Amino acid sequence: MAESPDHTRTTLLGNRHLGAYPKLGAWGDHPSRPTPTKPVIEHYACMIDLLGRAGRLSNAMDFILGSPYAESSLLWRTLVNACKLNGDLNIGRVASKRLLELDSRICTSYILVSNMYAASGVLDKAAEARKM
After folding, report:
1. In whole numbers, what is the pLDDT of the chain averaged over residues?
2. Could you tell me the sign of the dihedral formed by the alpha carbons of 32, 36, 41, 47, in that order?
3. Which helix (H) or strand (E) segment is 16 a member of?
4. Of 31, 56, 100, 109, which alpha carbon lies 20 to 30 A from 128's?
5. Which candidate, 77, 66, 75, places its Cα nearest to that of 29?
6. Count of H helices and E strands in the chain?
7. For residue 38, what pLDDT is reported?
8. Are residues 76 and 60 in contact, defined by beta-carbon separation less than 8 angstroms?
9. From its record, what is one biological process in GO terms (predicted)?
10. What is the pLDDT of residues 61-79, one digit of tens each?
11. 108: closest CA among 90, 86, 129, 124?
12. Per-residue pLDDT tens for 78-114?
């Protein structure tokens, strides 16, 4: 019997809240692997959040790039937030650039980028992002 998308999303969210990051599930490391449920964008966002909370930011970026939603600002926004939480400006800069290319009209994207820089103590870049 196939799982419903809501069941899969609930499972991913439950794992995130329980801290179950190391074992990420059937398609955690390979988004193209066949699964009982066809993943939707929310599944991908949950997986990026899981990978980010586990500190696997490089894997999260590869996961986005290998997904059918690589042009979605939701996935890049999720990665920028994970970079903020982990204090990783290297991947954060790349993710921020991509996010702002995709979502340049949405002010919350600039605020998120600004908050990422501010959390890492790079206040000049934080102020610059807020002025855009």
Report:
1. 83
2. negative
3. helix 5-18
4. 56
5. 66
6. 7, 0
7. 80
8. no
9. RNA modification
10. 999 999 999 999 999 999 9
11. 129
12. 999 999 999 999 999 999 999 999 989 999 999 999 9
